[in-house]
């Protein structure tokens, strides 16, 4: 079987680790001295009380194997039967029109017939068919899946991205101007990604559409304003800003000027070049698919090359209560091209071993198709059994973890709870899952729930680590 | 620093998030939409609702969060964050949000329509945006800037943009 042959391209076209984009460290130190408080960082603000910006003592942290995570978040919840856990024998009531799943490179692993690119990459994927949490509401399920903590209680935990931004972001030595936690292209909107960690660890949502040219990244690339005009506007601003000229040494005014310089470094400097997808070959862009999602996957690869530790691609449109099969026919190939090409591309660039690709949504969809009105062929939310997928970053590929029954309605073997999955990801990143998080009011909070919280658990994904 | 702490001098500080967005909306004649997505069905607040009158800490917008409006979980004054950050400046300097507001603003429409002399136009703009008349030097600068760009519309957009980005507009003065 011919495997996907990603076109050769120069993966080293971007400087790794933001070479040439980072600030000289002295400016940050100067800020620290002037204000005697925590560092006023590029995309953040000092925490609520005087918390130290350095991450908690990481001596018990596991050895890191992965450096970055690309989270492909299928908003709405993809159906496990129609993606990675097909049940063709269950009857048309359950599998609908998808009766012939594809055999993949891996013996015995079959996936939906509309996912050929992923089938050819099956030796890199680990299908987590035993996912379960039992929650059928969007907001609650999103929160539980994205934070790895159960709902309820006083504390609003931060998502995996925000925790990675805390432990692997600027406080831990990340030097690029590009923020460490990026969302392509809009934030989900129904839960707070940063939780109690506050606005410093909110993701930077690019906005815009990567399939369009230029990719108008919010605040960095303004469509229709040339670099020359940006500069002339800046000059005009400096001439008109009489208050700043009158009292340049006033601390408030000086810090505003410094923030302005930082912002302009990003607008006029090399930072915006990373978002220019025209630097990639047209053939590669076609391979990813010229959809918003496909190009977002390509953008994510570029960001990983640059050294960004956490990227979320928010993929809308999976909440298919109605017209489920029509929408799947359209979206599955698009998703397949994007994710499949991304994994192949990361492999050919040598990045898959250090990049975790985490695919999934907040829950699955009911195995039994709802043919009655008003759904007329849709699937409802289903949190009892669903499927996620991980690849790369230390996870072994070509594996299946967990099984569901003949109809996909219950997990029969090896359940995987959200905290199991999230804890495994933290371990591979070198973040101690039992480390404590700095809550602004001093309440005790841990990266993942501890054993004392007595939550049902299938254990971390040791089988594939 | 002692004098500043004891209010010996006027404390220059950045406007609060809600006040800032309300000021921009009032000056440009545009509105922001506030809605609560939790729970479904969504709640939409009426057009023209001002940010300072938002009843609930959870009804927010990305602008308000970026500029330090607290979620009001803890009732501590320190929860509100008035420190400037690169991301905030980036938003004002280059975001499509502010750009759309300027381009749709009634000041722009009015200035484009009027064939007023530049001095009169300068006075109008300065009083609308900065609440004071321009000095002679500023009027001269305004006249220069008006002819600097390729079109009058572009010049006016740039001038309005610059005024929104001055320290004077962003801080209480």
State the helicity of chain B in percent bands.
40-55%
Please report the distance between the alpha carbons of the first and last residues of chain A: 28 Å
Residue windows where pLDDT falls under 50 for at least 5 positions of chain B:
none
Estimated structural class of chain A:
alpha/beta
Largest sheet of chain B: 2 strands, antiparallel
If helices are DSSP runs of H or I spanning 4 or more residues, what is the number of helices of chain B? 10
Question: From N to C, what is the helix and strand string of chain A?
Answer: HEHEEHEHHEEHHHHHEHEEEEEEEH
**Spatial sequence of strands, sheet with the most strands of chain B:** 1-2
Shape, per Cα inertia axes of chain B: globular
> Can you give the mean pLDDT of chain A?
84
User: How many DSSP E strands of chain B?
Assistant: 2
How would you sum up this structure, described in words?
The complex is a heterodimer of chains A (465) and B (173). With 465 residues, chain A is of the alpha/beta class. Chain A folds into two domains: 67-221 and 276-464, Alkaline Phosphatase, subunit A (3-Layer(aba) Sandwich), CATH 3.40.720.10; 232-272, no CATH class. In chain A, 29% of the residues lie in helices and 12% in strands. Chain A has twelve helices and 14 strands. Chain A has helices at 25-35, 92-95, 116-120, 138-147, 160-168, 227-240, 242-246, 251-268, 282-288, 292-306, 324-348, 418-429, and strands at residues 68-74, 102-103, 110-111, 125-131, 181-184, 204-205, 310-315, 355-360, 364-365, 381-382, 386-391, 399-401, 403-404, 411-413. Chain A has an eight-stranded mixed β-sheet with strand order 6-5-7-1-8-11-4-12, with helices on both faces. A two-stranded antiparallel sheet of chain A has the order 2-3. A two-stranded antiparallel ribbon of chain A has the order 9-10. In chain A, helix 10 runs parallel beside helix 11 (324-348). The longest helix of chain A is centred in the C-terminal third of the chain and has 25 residues, at 324-348. Chain A starts with 24 loop residues before the first helix and ends in a 36-residue tail after the last helix. With 173 residues, chain B is mainly α. Among the domains of chain B are: 26-72, no CATH class; 102-170. Chain B has a two-stranded antiparallel sheet. In chain B, helix 8 (136-148) crosses helix 9 (152-165). The longest helix of chain B is centred in the last third of the chain and has 14 residues, at 152-165. Chain B is globular, with a radius of gyration of 18 Å. Chain B starts with a helix and ends with a helix. The mean pLDDT of chain B is 83. The interface between A and B is large, with 54 and 50 residues.
């Amino acid at each position: 079987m011919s495997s996907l042959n990603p076109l050769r391209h120069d993966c080293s076209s971007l400087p790794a680790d933001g070479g040439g984009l980072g600030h000289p460290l002295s400016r940050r130190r100067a800020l620290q001295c002037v204000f005697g408080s925590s560092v006023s960082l590029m995309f953040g603000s000092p925490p609520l009380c005087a918390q130290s910006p350095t991450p908690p003592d990481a001596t018990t942290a596991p050895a890191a194997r992965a450096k970055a995570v690309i989270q492909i978040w299928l908003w709405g919840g993809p159906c496990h039967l129609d993606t990675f856990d097909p049940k063709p024998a269950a009857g048309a009531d359950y599998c609908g029109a998808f009766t012939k799943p594809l055999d993949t490179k891996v013996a015995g692993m079959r996936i939906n017939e509309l996912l050929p690119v992923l089938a050819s990459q099956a030796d890199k994927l680990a299908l987590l068919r035993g996912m379960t949490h039992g929650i059928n509401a969007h907001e609650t399920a999103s929160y539980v899946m994205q934070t790895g903590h159960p709902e309820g209680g006083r504390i609003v935990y931060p998502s995996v991205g925000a925790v990675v931004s805390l432990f692997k972001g600027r406080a831990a030595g990340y030097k690029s101007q590009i923020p460490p936690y990026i969302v392509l292209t809009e934030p989900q909107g129904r839960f707070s990604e940063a939780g109690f960690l506050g606005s410093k660890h909110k993701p930077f949502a690019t906005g815009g559409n990567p399939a369009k040219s230029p990719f108008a990244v919010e605040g960095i690339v303004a469509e229709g304003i040339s670099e020359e005009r940006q500069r002339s506007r800046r000059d005009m601003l400096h001439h008109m800003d009489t208050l700043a000229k009158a009292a340049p040494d006033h601390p408030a005014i000086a810090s505003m000027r410094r923030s302005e310089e930082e912002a302009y470094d990003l607008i006029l400097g090399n930072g915006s070049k990373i978002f220019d997808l025209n630097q990639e070959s047209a053939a590669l862009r076609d391979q990813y698919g010229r959809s918003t999602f496909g190009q977002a996957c390509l953008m994510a690869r570029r960001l990983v090359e640059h050294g960004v530790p956490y990227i979320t691609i928010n993929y809308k449109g999976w909440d298919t209560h109605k017209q489920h099969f029509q929408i799947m026919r359209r979206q599955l190939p698009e998703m397949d091209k994007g994710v499949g090409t991304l994994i192949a591309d990361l492999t050919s660039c040598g990045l898959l071993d250090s990049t975790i690709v985490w695919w999934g949504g907040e829950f699955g969809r009911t195995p039994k198709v709802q043919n009655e009105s008003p759904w007329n062929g849709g699937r409802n939310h289903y949190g009892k059994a669903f499927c996620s997928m991980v690849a790369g970053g230390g996870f072994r590929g070509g594996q299946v973890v967990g099984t569901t029954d003949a109809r996909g309605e219950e997990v029969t073997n090896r359940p995987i709870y959200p905290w199991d999955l999230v804890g495994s990801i933290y371990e591979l990143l070198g973040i101690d899952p039992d480390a404590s998080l700095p809550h602004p009011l001093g309440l005790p909070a841990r990266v993942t729930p501890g054993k004392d919280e007595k939550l049902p658990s299938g254990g971390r994904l040791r089988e594939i680590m | 620093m002692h004098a500043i702490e004891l209010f010996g001098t006027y404390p220059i500080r950045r406007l609060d998030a809600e006040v800032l967005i309300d000021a921009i909306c009032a000056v440009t004649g545009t509105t922001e939409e506030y809605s609560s997505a939790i729970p479904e069905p969504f709640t939409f607040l009426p057009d023209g609702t001002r940010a300072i009158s938002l009843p609930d800490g959870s009804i927010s917008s990305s602008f308000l969060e970026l500029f330090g409006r607290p979620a009001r979980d803890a009732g501590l004054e320190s929860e509100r964050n008035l420190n400037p950050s690169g991301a905030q400046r980036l938003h004002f300097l280059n975001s499509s949000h502010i750009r759309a507001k300027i381009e749709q603003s009634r000041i722009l429409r009015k200035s484009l329509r009027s064939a007023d002399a530049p001095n009169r136009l300068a006075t109008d703009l300065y009083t609308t945006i900065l609440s004071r008349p321009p000095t002679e030097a500023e009027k001269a600068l305004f006249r220069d800037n008006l002819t600097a760009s390729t079109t009058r519309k572009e010049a006016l957009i740039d001038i309005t943009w610059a005024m929104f980005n001055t320290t004077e507009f962003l801080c209480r003065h």
